[in-house]
Design the sequence.
């Protein structure tokens, strides 16, 4: 899903159900842990067009709309709460 704050024309966010899953996926794309973006309840990596295509080739699920992305991000936030020992339900992205 495009990110309006990212200066490149084609870009997206990489997020996942768990911190470990997120960093593992990013590492497979050749990204450094210090490039992670910290969000409220959910971290992500910003991807360029090439990294997005690589992520999809490696099995990432492409979300086609803002509504679909928002719903999946909320499920991941709930999963992160569970992972961090906070109250919440787990949702699956993959």
Sequence:
């Amino acid at each position: 899903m495009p990110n309006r704050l990212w200066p490149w024309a084609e870009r997206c966010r990489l997020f996942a159900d768990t911190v470990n899953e997120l960093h593992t996926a990013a590492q497979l794309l050749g990204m450094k842990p210090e490039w992670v973006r910290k969000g409220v309840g959910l971290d992500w990596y910003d991807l360029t067009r090439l990294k997005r295509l690589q992520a999809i080739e490696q099995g990432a699920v492409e979300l086609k709309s803002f509504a679909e992305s928002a719903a999946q991000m909320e499920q991941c936030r709930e999963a992160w709460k569970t992972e961090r020992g906070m109250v919440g339900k787990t949702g699956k992205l993959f």
Remarks:
- The longest helix spans residues 66-83.
- The chain has a mean pLDDT of 78.
- The chain has three helices and two strands.
